[in-house]
TrEMBL record, chains A, B, C, D:
Family (UniProt): Belongs to the adenosylhomocysteinase family.
Annotated GO biological process: one-carbon metabolic process; S-adenosylmethionine cycle
One Gene Ontology term, aspect cellular component: cytosol
Region entry Disordered, spans: 22-45
Co-factor remark: Binds 1 NAD(+) per subunit.
Residue ranges of domain S-adenosyl-L-homocysteine hydrolase NAD binding in the record: 231-392
List of residues binding substrate: T97, D171, E196, K226, D230
Protein name (record): Adenosylhomocysteinase like 2
Superkingdom assignment: Eukaryota
SMART domains per record: AdoHcyase (SM00996), AdoHcyase_NAD (SM00997)
Record-listed NAD(+) binding positions: G262, E263, V264, G265, K266, G267, E283, N386
């Protein structure tokens, strides 16, 4: 059940990625990879992928991705001498794309051994998997796995004679779940879990609450840098992109209501305002509401403007934000879409009634037609617009991958006792380090503190630069929680 | 020594306030208030102010301020029935202005008794003090106190027969300091300290670190709402205002470098970019640096652009950010000013050398002239531009005052054990409440969660609405620290 | 030769349109329409199209377009009683799309008879042509005409027994050219030409200069409303759309140089600045250059920034703005594209040399690879990005079509002597009328002058509202040229 | 009667200027300058000013202004060799400020003889007048002239034995009016009039219409560059400045209605939107209305929003835009001000009724109080806010002064027949030249056309660069009107 939900969610994310990769896909034959016996050019057969012959093509994809992920390449160079992951045995379960390959080859360059499965049954780029297998990685993944294949691949990563993982890199929590269920004793040797997704992080916090988390876990999803890029900066661009690609709508003069003024909502509002739309905001949190006011948006209840708006965008992470009653009152041609964290924000199910006609007018675009002829334009059936109908820039993926690599290094090298059996946010210093590795992309030049200035501010010259109560925190200030040395 | 510094700092803030109030000032005679015996119309003489006859004029000032502080007025109404401050004896030390008077009369309406002194020797509005005295408040303050007067007034608030404070409201820490020094035993009955200023908060953390803090203290300065308004939103407007009032400079096409991209820097950059300036940013923190890049600013070292810019603005809170070497390289007519937290950001002392000529061309504006005729336009002698040369909107003061009132209520009513002898940030729920009280000003309508939605999100319908790791926090997530009931 | 150029230009425009229409295209058989004998359901066979059976599908397309072209629908209603085109025989040569069909049916509703050919050999929507033929229009056009077909179709529109056109609606000048060449005597009965394209207008001015223009012509291309929408507002959105669809580039933090700061450049710069790019501008005209400065852009020569920028955009209408020397100096991964009026702005020919490798990585996207591995990303081979790689919103097409309709009405109804054998811009009052017909789309409410105000301003209450020297004009003020009555 | 109006209007402008100059004013004695006999250090006494002893101080003011008027200084250098004004005898009537002095000394450097009076009885900077007299200029002006003084001064400029003007530089038309009335025969020798103000230009067009204009006149007011700077760019900044200086209002979240979306309205709207205000627009012209929509503003009628807005700004040039009925419906605290061309936009007279109380709360700020206690904040009594309550940047004055100088040169040197007895706009090429002289201020680098490009575009490499129908023109295209050589 949960798997189904995840598969759906990840599928749409994959569809996003595939915009850039689709022209490279090729489906050769119908035999299941599980029934084939393949070896790479060095005679190694410890993998299971679609077609090892696609390796060259996959290599080219990886090389192009390397150009756009300078931070990982820098990390390779900077940390290679000391091999901070020497001895690490990483089992991973993520989307298998060119960007992931750059991450895996970086981990390898830093000393780690890796075994990898896909976290989604549709998202594997077969050529990339081939290139990884050719390069000696034990990859178990292909595009179009069955549910049985999915768990089989994960099991093949974990259940190996003479090799036991000591680090987990997970995206969605399925790999972690599998080990908990099948091989709980493995956790004795595991030094930590790095988890990227909202869902996986949620599961970890639940484990922690229940007292069942038996190793430290790093919540990569909520790192400052990742959040800012996944949400504010990325959504600022993808809301425009997603709407244009699906509807060709002109933004100028359009009336838009954005539900929710968190980072995602802020990005959407800023972009649409800049393009000449008139934007209304709804909020439940008075602090975010006041920010919306100060940023120049009318704060309304949805009902106040639902009759007049041309576009409705949900960014709340909540459920049933737009319900049938709202949809009934929208005007002809109104576009409805979701940029939030779940696919429940728009009550799409309520539109599956006999008196309404659905007409698929384009990929990801449905007209829902009322008996009086009114048409509502529903995008991506209420799933995430930015993942379904636009693409995720490599730059954003680079930030995530770099954060994952650093989290692995931190957990693997942390002295005894630094991390307990709990879920941790990334130390701010590591967040700052991820950011610093991405500055050269912008030819940006950081200023260094003088000794005198550092002393005046009571800061280490190398950071971290902000107190942990910077901006959002309502726990007592406790500096002890903040400062400790960091491996790089 | 510290007092000197504070007096200077506060003086400039007062100058800001006085923009709106200066036409109401009148200096009647030269007798020291300490030598006069005055009584109000009810025969009460427990106060010491300039001239009780100015009460009517002060009352009008207070009434005008009430119109612009709807949140406090709402608080009066909402909480008046239950009188949450019944029994509270508040001793306060703040600027004494019409806005403060609205706060004091609110505290009184909620059940508190108040005695009050000024936190600055120049900032008292005499008419307002008169109106307060006429209304029965024990106020000890006038414009133009000597240092001896200053401490005498504070002492008169605290040292009373038959009355002992149980709450402290401080701005700068001088009142707290005085009680620590003179009447330490008073702390037995004191339930808590509410402190507003950066300096005062710093002193409290030092006390806490040294294990000498003997009551809970609330750091009002770092509440989300106050920070956003004092910094981002207020500076977005005051940077333009301060520059215009002093130099009449046209912003369009000007090249500007802003040192520091925290909230203050973000506000300055956004405003100047919007007015058509070309803005460069310097930063030491890579996360803020990356934000500057994504927001469209070239990130540079100061030396890279110092020769070409028309305006230099410091927003770092650091010292010696702009030094003589930079000033020597600036072009003729370059404007230099400071929006940061200290008056040390620009090394003004380095300009006090014989070869440079200073010419005061307008209030707060100096031309510093090099031997070759080059002129640098230095504003407010390097002190805070927005406090010296622009005004603080009442709306911002309203947010601060409301936060202070709520902090007093919270500390006074907190059950045994909720707060220990430490410095606390405002519970997020109170921050949210302050925000909600200010929404009607914008005719803003908040959306309420349905029961179903609240359950789905795992939130209380009345907030708080954000996890405590929202955006900036690097401590382990611990929900226990977050939720507790709140009096209002 | 000219035809070739036009076909190329128009092809790319068509490709833009087809984004929205491509899912409706179907190619049935290979027989040339010229070899088929088809009749509509009423037995009429005076047309030549691909397949009359597609009429129903085309009708649905037209109905959807009608919803988005409220101005033409309003014009139908408002002017229908008096039929201002009664007796008009309009021969037209434009793209044949659903939007054009709405125009043609409007002209018909206003009293005109119409015969129509396509102005481009690829741009006809066959289903729409079928719907028009079924509705009784004499349409001669299909997708994929040969050059011979192209002229044959035009000739079939013009050369009819017992029917002679008295109005020409042209897009590109080919129809006008054909009549000049083959049937010059027809001009005796022709009351005027309405021309939409830059190229066609240019040809008309040349005819006028040479003294060979024998009827009045209306330059619809340069109407204020059309210009603003085709250029500023449309490009503000399409630059982002075109770049995203082709390259998925993240705009935040990117350095961009925009060559030319006319309306197109202004739109591009505003959009990219709003998305967080750092934008440089080049200009030849000091007035536009000063505007760029005041709008916050560094004005540079291309050479100053060519090494550092991530994106180069040409918007000049000039030739060889970006030449091989610039391309040689760009950094790896630099994106190069053209938003200007010609395909000569980038010297693409200079890249067709043996040492450079071209790699087509996606539709409309080429990597040009230097011997050292440097890749330049060239979009649309230097043709117009917004027409090749994004779409034109129906709203923009609606403005053009409405303007064309009004121009026809004006020329057809103008009293003797109002227009001579010259090229005219649309009377401002008509421009204002086009604008007013589009205001309801935005639920926008215009204010009306009171009688007293109109008198005070010396204006007619119904406009025109601006003197003819408003903003850009350097001819003596001559009010006589301005005011005359207008038919609607 | 007209004079009264002008004096009022100019007075407010003067008040604007005086913001920067007020600290230099000194009033020495009460004797009328007409009763004093003064001589400069060279024994010359052909002037009448307040006090020749202030010359040194005035000289310093002029030198500071020179630094900020680089275009005039460049003009001096560039044209000095050939002295294009050799033989010119210019009589001028303008505000006499440091900026005007830079203009006068430039005219002199180019070969002209000048005699000058003030166009406003209050606006003369006495020290500057003294410096000019000391430098040999025949200046007749002082601060605080009577109406009789005003005309006496003008007469002393014109009515001189042995000297007759051949050029007029006027601001407001009073000088021109005086010569028409008293010395009409002078026009035989006068080569042209250069007029800067709206009012003066209006009078010239009326003369022209009536067939009474007997020399060519140059309308400097409507030059593109001046218009853009006086309106769009200057107002974008001065609306914020004017509101802040008078009311200290916080812009964020405020609801504002701007009446009129011409250049002034566009500037106001852009600035307020950027500061976080929610802006509504009213318009009578559908083209401007559509622009407002596309720029993201709700287009409304004033009545729709009058109850909810916090600020009302008029920018129409019309009368009675805000009337008593609107004022009655505004909410408590609403700020009302005028940025348009006349002081009639707000019907201030309607507020002078017995039931309303006026309270002057600050310079230029009145509270108008309704019987129920509602207060409206009226700024500058409805006169121009930006001239009354903010300052005009020297950069804007520099553009105007440079344009005046070039217009004089053009008219003085134009070959017989180029200009007839009509009112002319500045040739575009001169507009471009003014712009180019101001680019170095921004370190802006103009691109030059190659020969090949100029040929391709059909342009002269030195401009003009735009056809005369660029953007706003509704007269037939006539290239003959456009191109002619230009003296510089």
């Amino acid at each position: 059940m949960i798997l189904q939900f995840l598969a759906k969610k990840k599928l749409s994310r994959f569809l996003g990625h595939s915009f850039s990769a689709s022209y490279t896909d090729s489906s050769d034959d119908e035999t299941s990879p599980r029934d084939k016996q393949q070896k790479n050019s060095k005679g190694n057969g410890d993998f299971c992928i679609k077609n090892i012959k696609q390796a060259d093509f996959g290599r080219r994809e990886i090389e192009i991705a390397e150009q756009e992920m300078p931070a990982l390449m820098a990390l390779r160079k900077r940390a290679q001498g000391e091999k901070p992951l020497a001895g690490a045995k990483v089992v991973g379960c993520t989307h298998i794309t060119a960007q992931t390959a750059v991450l895996m080859e970086t981990l390898s360059a830093l000393g780690a051994q890796c075994r990898w499965a896909a976290c989604n049954i549709y998202s594997t780029q077969n050529e990339v998997a081939a290139a990884l297998a050719e390069g000696g990685f034990s990859v178990f993944a292909w595009k179009g796995e069955s549910e049985d294949d999915f768990w089989w691949c994960i099991d093949r990563c974990v259940n190996v004679e003479g090799w036991q993982p000591n680090m987990i890199l997970d995206d969605g929590g399925d790999l972690t779940h599998w080990i908990y269920k099948k091989y709980p004793s493995m956790f004795k040797k595991i030094k930590g879990i790095v988890e990227e997704s909202v869902t996986g992080v949620h599961r970890l916090y639940q484990l922690s609450k229940a007292g069942k988390l038996c190793v430290p876990a790093m919540n990569v999803n909520d790192s400052v840098t990742k959040q800012k890029f996944d949400n504010l900066y990325c959504c600022r661009e993808s809301i425009l992109d997603g709407l244009k690609r699906t509807t060709d709508v002109m933004f100028g003069g359009k009336q838009v209501v954005v539900c929710g003024y968190g980072e995602v909502g802020k990005g959407c509002c800023a972009a649409l305002k800049a393009m000449g739309s008139i934007v209304y905001v709804t909020e439940i949190d008075p602090i975010c509401a006041l920010q919306a006011c100060m940023d120049g948006f009318r704060l309304v209840k949805l009902n106040e403007v639902i009759r007049q708006v041309d576009i409705v965008i949900t960014c709340t992470g909540n459920k049933n934000v737009v319900v049938r009653e709202h949809l009934d009152r929208m005007k002809n041609g109104c576009i409805v879409c979701n940029m939030g964290h779940s696919n429940t924000e728009i009550d799409v199910a309520s539109l599956r009634t006999p008196e309404l006609t659905w007409e698929r007018v384009r990929s990801q675009v449905d007209h829902v037609i009322w008996p009086d002829g009114k048409r509502i334009v529903l995008l991506a059936e209420g799933r995430l617009l930015n993942l379904s109908c636009s693409t995720v820039p490599t730059f954003v993926l680079s930030i995530t991958a770099t954060t994952q690599a650093l989290a692995l290094i931190e957990l693997y090298n942390a002295p005894e006792g630094r991390y307990k059996q709990d879920v941790y946010l990334l130390p701010k210093k590591m967040d700052e380090y991820v950011a610093s590795l991405h500055l050269p992309t912008f030819d940006a030049h950081l200023t260094e503190l003088t000794d005198e200035q550092a002393k005046y501010l009571g800061l280490n010259k190398n950071g971290p630069f902000k107190p942990n109560y910077y901006r959002y925190a309502d726990v007592p200030f406790n500096p002890c929680l903040l400062h400790h040395d960091f491996i790089l």
